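Repro:
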Amino acid sequence: MTLRRLAALVVTTFVGGSFLTASAAPISLPAGATLTGTLQSEINTKTAQDGQRFTVVTNAGSRIYGHLSEVARGNVGRKAHVKLNFDSVAFPDGSRSPVNASLSSVAQHKEINYTQAAGQVVGGMIVGNVLGKWVGTNVGGALGAAGGALLAANTATNIVIPAGAAVSLKLNAPLTNGHPQSR
């Protein structure tokens, strides 16, 4: 047996939260283990739909498949929200297993709808100005603009998870690669 073949058989399948090899060795990970990978396509609450599929690829090439749910676009009075659900793992050796995991962390950023935010600020300023005149003060417009800005800051954003973002998930149940010896 060559040194290269021996090394391929001896290399462990899991180190630091990532699958490492495409060997036929059984993979068995306990509940609570952390898996890390890279998101393959952008997720944006502005355009995403419930049921939309996504894929996370681990460092060794295992593919974790999932779908989105509870997608809510950021809008007036409503914060953006999205839930990533993990369904199955395809291992480099071709075997597949269902996965029960929860999202631990993901790199994301908020996308601000500046037109909507500006409208909320101006609307707040107009309402504040009218109310200020009604109660006999000239600071109503400034207070209304501040209120509109707070509303805009809390509701006029969408969640964007870019392609290539680092994703970390925690296993809620043990995971095996489907080889009979690993069950």
